[in-house]
Amino acid sequence: MLYTKLKSTSKQLAVLIDPDKQNKSSLSLLIELAKNARVDFFFVGGSLLLENSFEETIQAIKANSKIPVIIFPGNNYQLSAKADAILFLSLISGRNPEFLIGQHVVAAPLIKEANIETIPTGYLLIDGGRISTTSYITQTVPIPNDKPDIAVATALAGEMLGMKLIYLEAGSGAVNSVSAEMIKAVKKNISIPLIVGGGIRTAEQAEEICKAGADIIVVGNILEKEPGLLMEISLAVHSNNKVTE
Ligand code: 1GP
């Protein structure tokens, strides 16, 4: 069960792969860098995919590494039996029924058929300083970044509804990542693992976000431009584990 690994007390790093943004050679390079940097998970998906390379991407990762692959779906088309698990995301910061339950109804029988681990995840979109693709596609308004109370109440409701993870998302390529203040407030109030992503570009940011209480850090966009940053970001995340390991 991957959920057991997701809820480990160690800080962990997930690399988000948007299949549209990778070609064969950039993907192989990223996989090798991820292995060297001891990345904990690959997340695969995107709010909007224009090319049909989702399955192929997962296959390439599975063929070349043992790092678990978790589907981070933008919609119910993003499904593959080759993945190890899927984040069954409900966009609980929004009020669009399609992304709260609609897509899930369509996907559920297909996920059952694919027989992969399903991890119910409360997905909260936080204002990252510009309109994100996720916000536009889902037609939902993000939680203002200076309103930690709204994030806390929403995350709590997610946990009370039985969700197993909370994901604070500033949006891919966000100008501002989720604030330390909001992360601290949410972490203090929930007892399930907290994932934070969107706009994390440096090791310092990753470290600050871990220290604020994130359990799993997600980095995507910057690695498409500067894959070489992966090692230092990974060291920053994993250095938080030294005392307990
Ligand atoms: C987006 O949280 C992820 O869904 C990662 O964001 O691409 O900005 O790293 P970036």
Instruction: Indicate the mean pLDDT.
Output: 96
Structural class: alpha/beta
The helix/strand order is HEHEHEEHEHHEHEHEHH
The share of residues in extended strands comes to 15-25%
Spatial strand sequence of the major β-sheet: 1-2-3-4-5-6-7-8
Radius of gyration: 16 Å
Each distinct ligand: SN-glycerol-1-phosphate
Overall 3D shape: globular
Quickly describe the structure.
By secondary structure, the protein is an alpha/beta fold.
Secondary structure topology:
Blueprint (H helix, E strand, L loop, with lengths): L1 H5 L5 E6 L6 H13 L4 E4 L9 H11 L4 E3 L13 E6 L6 H18 L2 E9 L7 H6 L9 H13 L4 E5 L10 H10 L4 E4 L5 H10 L3 E4 L1 H5 L4 H9 L7
Parallel strand pairs: 1-2, 1-8, 2-3, 3-4, 4-5, 5-6, 6-7, 7-8
Describe this entry's structure for a reader.
With 245 residues, the protein is an alpha/beta fold. The protein has a single domain (10-244), classed as Alpha-Beta Barrel (TIM Barrel). The chain is 41% helix and 17% strand. The chain has an eight-stranded parallel β-barrel, surrounded by six helices. Helix 8 (203-212) runs parallel beside helix 10. The longest helix has 18 residues, at 97-114. The chain is globular. Bound molecules: SN-glycerol-1-phosphate. The site of SN-glycerol-1-phosphate has 14 residues, from strand 8 and helix 9.
